[in-house]
Automatic annotation (TrEMBL):
Function: GTPase component of the GTPBP3-MTO1 complex that catalyzes the 5-taurinomethyluridine (taum(5)U) modification at the 34th wobble position (U34) of mitochondrial tRNAs (mt-tRNAs), which plays a role in mt-tRNA decoding and mitochondrial translation. Taum(5)U formation on mammalian mt-tRNA requires the presence of both GTPBP3-mediated GTPase activity and MTO1 catalytic activity.
Lineage summary: Eukaryota, Metazoa, Ecdysozoa, Arthropoda, Hexapoda
Subcellular location: Mitochondrion
Domain called TrmE-type G: residue spans: 234-402
Matches recorded under InterPro entries: G_TrmE, GTP-bd, GTP-bd_TrmE_N, GTPase_MnmE, MnmE_dom2, MnmE_helical, P-loop_NTPase, Small_GTP-bd
Main location: mitochondrion
GO biological process, one term: mitochondrial tRNA modification
Recorded catalytic activity of this chain's protein: GTP + H2O = GDP + phosphate + H(+)
Protein's recorded name: 5-taurinomethyluridine-[tRNA] synthase subunit GTPB3, mitochondrial
GO cellular component: mitochondrion
GO molecular function annotation: GTP binding; GTPase activity
Similarity-based family: Belongs to the TRAFAC class TrmE-Era-EngA-EngB-Septin-like GTPase superfamily. TrmE GTPase family.
Keywords: GTP-binding, Hydrolase, Mitochondrion, Nucleotide-binding, Transit peptide, tRNA processing
């Protein structure tokens, strides 16, 4: 069975890598420089045919040269050529890069020229990285980290993706896998050699203790409150409150553009209006929701309120907007907020995710403002009209985002993909089955083959994360997220 799997994997690699591929690794459209990458066995012939260099270029050193059409010998451009001989290249194959001017006609002529070489074709999305994966240059977690790094839009996302692309998450999973493999080896050694007394009787107990340690590591890793996934996908934040308290004004203020319509008419916002932001380096998806109130007879507004409540249920963070002009005294503030939350239908769990924003503070008298400001440990004071209090609100919001997403520059790598979480849970279930069977079954009746079966399944689960166990469907999904030139 192993020989068959090895043969099939090798055959697939040979079929994939038989062609020489090329693609644009820089951005599409007119630009100063376009980078066209070529990878495969025809790379050396392409260099010889498309340049007039007297000697073959030295590895990893840029050479300024004229670049010609491979078939017509017409000059296409004058640019840089870099030669990366395999296996010391990104893909593990002979690779070249042409750095030419980024005009559309030049890139088109380069494509047309490269396509004339035998068994040379344009790369599929993510095919360069896929070849690097099959060449053992990176595992799946590093591939996913590289994809996240390319798509990162905020500083915190960049830091998390860079750590994963550099293999820090891979090291953690491979360490767990090594511990499991060692436990399997110890148990199998006990099975094979215990009768000859070559293996100590405490081998089993030591293996069980090691597995208990792995279980603890897995539980701690899974108990991360989904910080890594929030950081990767964005913190879904609902702006919620009664009609006409300034929710739409707040989203417009945070975005510095007119995202939502603002009028004095209550119930203007009917549907969820989403917009993406970078707040303190963290990705935030702000959702302006319909004003929550009871007793409306407007069918469209009722649907908007229902959608708002559903959005609030799934949100990671709530910005609860309160009309500060309705609060006259500090004593009245607590009572008003309690009644306000009951009216909106917000329970204790929702309030634990809420950051309270007292808006329209410009309408307060100076005395009331001062009295309320003494309690700003619990609330953020803001005037969307004058922008007073905005820096303080952003700082408080960033603090909450750090709590929700963590700090990727100092914390251990966290789970960033739902795929990882699923396989880790499966791995944990296998290890707990191992533990329960071992403890519940007495030594005379214990079948150690069953024990190792659970451990092998746990190893396979980790292998599905790193790519040690190949699953074609998973690979196709992952690599399809890359652009052509990567």
């Amino acid at each position: 069975m192993f020989v068959k799997q090895f043969f099939n994997t090798t055959l697939r690699q040979t079929v994939r890598n038989s062609s020489t591929i090329f693609g644009l690794s820089s951005g599409f459209g007119k630009c100063g420089v376009a980078v066209i990458r070529v990878s495969g066995s025809a790379s050396r012939a392409i260099v010889d045919k498309k340049t007039r260099l007297k000697s073959f270029p030295a590895p990893r050193r840029a050479v300024l040269t004229k670049i010609f059409h491979g078939q017509t010998n017409a000059m296409i451009d004058r640019g840089l050529l870099l030669w990366f001989p395999g296996p010391q290249s990104f893909t593990g194959e002979d690779t070249i890069e042409f750095h030419v001017h980024g005009g559309t006609a030049i890139v088109s002529a380069m494509y047309d020229s490269l396509a004339t070489f035998p068994d040379t074709r344009i790369a599929e999305p993510g095919e360069f990285t896929k070849r690097a994966f099959y060449a053992g240059k990176m595992d799946l977690t590093e591939v996913e980290g590289l994809a996240d790094l390319i798509h990162a839009e905020t500083e915190a996302q960049r830091k998390q993706a860079l750590r994963q692309a550099n293999g820090q998450l891979s090291c953690f999973y491979n360490d767990l896998r090594t511990q499991l493999v060692q436990a399997i080896a110890s148990i199998e050694a006990y099975i094979d050699f215990a009768e000859d007394q070559d293996v100590d009787d405490n081998v089993l107990s030591v293996a069980v203790q090691n597995i208990e340690g792995v279980i603890g590591q897995l539980k701690a890793h899974l108990n991360d409150n989904r910080r890594g996934e929030r950081l990767r996908n964005g913190v879904r934040t609902a702006i919620v409150g009664a009609p006409n308290v300034g929710k739409s004004s707040l989203i417009n203020l945070l975005s510095q553009r007119n995202v939502s319509i603002v009028t004095s008419i209550a119930g203007t916002t009917r549907d969820i209006v989403e917009s993406h932001y970078d707040i303190g380096g963290y990705p935030v998806i702000l959702g302006d929701t319909a004003g929550l109130r009871q007793g409306t007879e407007d069918v469209v507004e009722s649907e908007g309120i229902a959608r708002a409540r559903a959005y609030v249920e799934s949100a990671d963070l709530l910005l609860l907007v309160v009309d500060a002009s309705r609060v006259e005294t500090v004593d009245r503030l607590d009572t008003y907020l309690r009644e306000y939350m009951e009216t909106l239908g917000l329970d204790a769990d929702m309030m634990s995710r809420a950051l309270i924003v007292l808006n329209k503070c410009d309408l307060l008298t100076s005395g009331t403002w001062e009295r309320l400001s003494a309690h700003n440990n619990s609330f953020s004071f803001l005037s969307c009209q004058t922008q007073s209090g905005l820096p303080e609100l952003l700082e408080r919001l960033k603090t909450r985002l750090v709590q929700l997403c963590g700090d990727p520059s100092v914390e251990s790598p966290t789970i960033s993909q739902e795929r990882h979480r699923y396989h880790l849970k499966q791995c944990l279930a296998c290890l707990e089955q191992f533990r329960d069977y071992f403890h519940e079954t007495g030594a005379p009746n214990r079948d150690l083959a069953i024990v190792t079966h659970h451990l092998r399944n746990a190893v396979r689960c980790i292998g599905k994360i790193t790519g040690t166990v190949e699953t074609e469907e998973i690979l196709d999904v992952i690599f399809s997220t890359f652009c052509i030139g990567k």
